[in-house]
Amino acid sequence: MPKGARKGEGFADRVGIPTELRPLVAALQRFRAATALESMELWLQLDLTMPQFAALHVIWQGGPLSGRQLAKHLGVSAPAVVKVCDRLEARGYIERIRDKIDRRVQWFQLTSAGAAVFQQLVAINREHLAPALRDLSPGDRVSLTRILNELAGYIEAARDTNKVPMEY
Question: Which fold would CATH assign to domain 49-161?
Fold first, then answer.
């Protein structure tokens, strides 16, 4: 028997998942596992830290950003952003562009290699998720959209309330 496990105790018992939520949590875990394999293979190829990926993702979503803007989005200091972006630039994922008006300002933008990371991730999700979503009835798609938005809103609100900066 594994260390820390008691006879007859499963994962749900150990982490304290209420009985009425266990089928839902199991379905969410199954969904995440089903969609994770190819994404995980890409992650391993990229060999990025979470802070590096977070910075890359924010730049991808927001377009070129100044160091201050990126630091604000990530909830970290400007020197922490410089450190992460130095690594991303060395790996060819981003480039720095000096502002034409204020030469003190540097803009971070994705290179074609950085954009390719997200093109691959989107392609993986599109390839597997789109057919499954198309097979749902229109009513199920509406319900799923509403439920996922409610879950995301709750998680975002809780995260914003308990904002803990990432370690860089």
Answer: Arc Repressor Mutant, subunit A (1.10.10)
Six-digit token pair at 15?
């982490």
pLDDT at 168 (0 to 100):
43
Is 7:1 a contact under the CB 8 Å cutoff? yes
Angle made by CA atoms 135, 140, 144, in degrees to the nearest 5: 105
- Residue 127's alpha-carbon distances to 29, 49, 109, 116, in angstroms, are 20, 26, 27, 16
How many Cβ atoms from other residues are within 10 Å of residue 42's Cβ? Answer: 13
**pLDDT for residue 3:** 55
Q: What residue spans define the domains of the chain?
A: 49-161
Residue length, the chain? 168
**Residues near 46 by beta carbon (within 8 Å), at least 6 away in sequence:** 53, 117
pTM: 0.66
